[in-house]
Design a protein that fits this description.
By secondary structure, the protein is an alpha+beta fold. 60% of the residues lie in helices and 7% in strands. It is globular.
């Protein structure tokens, strides 16, 4: 490291925070972790991220960096020789950034719709969105820019694997809570997700599935009670 301390403000179940924790682990960077209560956010978090007021925030010395995708690129650019996360080729970097936005713009909203679904029609519509997103990733892994690869990053994890992997893992837990069947008919996507989840570094940062399901189940109960 460069001798400057790293501190990460997060919440244990957040896929956005898990992205940053995995990147730091892959880079071999030590950091202090501060668990936030999102129902009672600390003064430090509100000061460090006054715009969005949410986790994750990475504090590098006295410099706060917010938003998980921004943090990932910052980490990679600051420590480029430690387990590079972004490809060197400009065309491939553009493809990676495009699909990173796909995670935020498509995958997370479909999961939000699923866990908020209050009846069978809403649930079916949300499941359809999740499956369509999986089909797009299946096609990309089979026939698109990343075809024939073990991971989106090649033979090792890259920034796109980090961003999409935790979203895809979360989807399985959300489906269990919403009692929805997402299917297993996307073999390339399923193989990629299993390999992602099996990586030792991923295993070290993934929260216990039963604990995550319990959290999501409580959240869903509160949402439906307000409907």
């Amino acid at each position: 490291m460069d001798g400057v301390e790293l501190k990460l403000y997060g919440m244990w179940a957040s896929p956005y925070v898990l992205r940053v924790r995995l990147a730091l682990k892959l880079k071999g960077l030590d950091y202090e972790y501060v668990e936030e209560n999102l129902a009672n956010k600390s003064a430090a978090l509100l000061r460090l991220n006054p715009v969005h007021r949410k986790v994750p925030v990475l504090l590098h010395g006295d410099r706060p960096i917010a938003e998980s995708a921004v943090i990932l690129e910052y980490i990679d650019e600051t420590w480029p020789r430690r387990f590079p996360l972004m490809p060197a080729d400009p065309r491939e970097r553009a493809a990676v950034r495009f699909w990173c936005h796909f995670g935020s713009d498509k995958m997370i909203p479909s999961l939000t719709a699923l866990i908020h679904s209050a009846d069978e029609a809403q649930r079916a519509a949300a499941v359809g969105e999740v499956r369509e997103n999986r089909k797009l990733l299946e096609d990309e892994l089979r026939e698109g820019f990343f075809r024939g690869r073990r991971f989106f990053g090649g033979e090792k994890l890259g920034i796109l694997d980090i961003i999409l992997g935790f979203d895809a893992h979360l989807a399985r837990c959300v489906a269990e809570v919403a009692e929805a069947d997402l299917g297993e008919d996307f073999p390339s996507f399923t193989r990629w997700l299993r390999e992602f989840e099996a990586q030792p570094e991923v295993q070290e940062v993934l929260p216990p599935s039963d604990k995550l399901v319990d959290l999501l189940r409580g959240y869903r109960r509160r949402i439906l009670a307000q409907a």
